Amino acid sequence: MGVFGLAALVLSGCAHKPPATDAIAFAAYEEANDPLEPMNRAMFKVDQSLDQVLVRPVIKVYRFAVPAPGRRGVDNFFNNVRSPITFINDVLQGEFTRAGTTFGRFAVNTTMGFFGFFDVGTKLGMEYHSEDFGQTLAVWGLGDGPYVYVPLLGPSTARDGFGFGVDAFITDPLAWYSRGDGAMGWVSWAYLGATYITLKDGVMDPLDELKKSSLDYYAALRSSYRQIRQSEIRNGAPPPMEDFD
Question: What is the 3-state secondary structure (H, E, C) of 101-160?
Fold first, then answer.
């Protein structure tokens, strides 16, 4: 997504920035941090069309073919597969206690949980959490950069897009395997497709609720994405208190 974000910066015009004298409009513009809004809204419309004609039919078939308990097992499996990514980013953030939890969950769920289909770790008091390189960059002090919307992938920022690329091609063990000698290329594509389907299955209903309650779905999704990412970066801690004059 970092590549898409860079291309957007080069090829797209920026949204009009209100004058600083218009305090309310200027504050809203700064908070949105969406200088590419015209292009992002166009990409959002493309994504909504793809969602209707491609993604939702696939998710409906998936839900019909796999009952809810089975889908939870698949979610658990892919959470377990992502454990090395979370572990590496736990360590890079200096969260060694959380890294120990991630390692313990991976060991227990892989062995006692039938390769992760059963979440034994949570039952033993090791709660699930995820980390990615975008969160790591935020902990290191890098700002999120401009908001970017990519069809099929959804909302992101310049920082999170770059982090996604690092996780997808460097820290993910299956990425290394797919580039190895004699590797079966279909494994990487199957993994990518299955991961995408499970992620979309998990967010489809909440997104539908957000759409129903929003006057401007695009803006609501942008705000929701930023709030969720900030909460993830703080590991669920409340936001810091701000001073007001």
Answer: HHHHHHHHHHHCCCCCCCCHHHHCCCCCCCCCHHHHHHHCCCCCCCEEEECCCEEEEHHH
Mean pLDDT of the chain: 87
Question: Does pLDDT of 24 surpass 60?
Answer: no
Burial (0-12, 13-18, 19+ Cβ within 10 Å), 42:
middle
Per-residue pLDDT tens digits for 32-83: 789 999 999 999 999 999 999 999 999 999 999 999 999 999 999 999 999 9
Estimate the crossing angle of helix 23-32 against helix 217-233, to 10 degrees.
60
The pTM of the full predicted model, rounded to 2 decimals, is: 0.85
- In this structure, is the dihedral angle defined by the CA atoms of residues 150, 155, 158 and 163, taken in order, positive or negative? negative
pLDDT at 11: 37
C-alpha–C-alpha distance, residues 88 and 107, integer Å: 15
Domain boundaries defined on the chain: 2-233
Residue pair 185/178 in contact (Cβ under 8 Å)? The answer is: yes
Q: The tokens 């004058």 sit on which residue?
A: 19
Which of 207, 178, 68, 187 is closest to 76 using CA atoms? 68
For residue 33, is it left (φ>0), alpha (ψ between -120 and 50) or beta? left
Distances (CA, A) of 152 to 45, 155, 237: 11, 9, 30
